[in-house]
Amino acid sequence: MSVIHRQIRQDMQKLIDQLSTHDLPAVKAVDQVWEDLNQLQLQYQIEIAHLRFQDETDQLNETITIKNRGTLIADLSGWTIEAGSPHQIYTFPEHSLLHPHQQFVVHTSGEHTHSFQFHHPIWNNRGDLATLKNHQGDVVCYWAYGQHAHSDVVISRIKADGHEGRGEGDEFIEIVNISEHIVDLSDWQVTSVRNQTTFTFPPGSKLRPGASLKIFTDKTTLAENEYSFNSHRALWNNQGGGAELIDYLGCMVSVYQY
């Protein structure tokens, strides 16, 4: 769980404690507590879900997607998206109501419902940071990709000694997000240095703040944040080896030796 979400939960608990006290406040005060709780809940359920920062045929075909993954209708009026710079900001207009499990797509250019209306690309193809803030200016969500995410993720563990026969399909490598950013891992690669076997993250792969993922040598049934090399032979030598995490541009992000 990210620091942002942890703080939201703590604030919600304080408000709930106010409601549960024997000395209940006036009706208006109770209404205000419920309103504050709803606002905190909205911050918890709204997030950046995707960012398209490059298009081979149209440089202006950039979009960022904001999703409501909760059960409350969210009024995003006055909320902002910062595109890597305080000089590149989109502000949601009045009556921007985002219904449960729906999304807003904000374009860089063009006449769309939601658009920065810039005439040049705003997302750096080598890496950038998107910041979503509520109407009070509080950060709700970060999204990082490319070079801006290099310090966010590390290879944390390799389990080299598998137990599933000669192929040792239950071997795995673990990657952890140590940042407050959702990290886009699309087209990033993990390579077993010793035998040069490579796994490529599929488009849409992401890792939430504080979360980890595992890439197994050969696993058929995968849970959330699990992937597989689909290799029928063991990849990690029990005597020692190493792994590399490389971004979509071929830049080194993390190295692990054991």
TrEMBL record:
SUPFAM superfamilies: Lamin A/C globular tail domain. Residues 145-258 form the LTD domain. InterPro entries: Lamin_tail_dom, Lamin_tail_dom_sf. This is Intermediate filament tail domain protein. It comes from Vibrio aerogenes CECT 7868. The lineage of its organism: Bacteria, Pseudomonadati, Pseudomonadota, Gammaproteobacteria, Vibrionales.
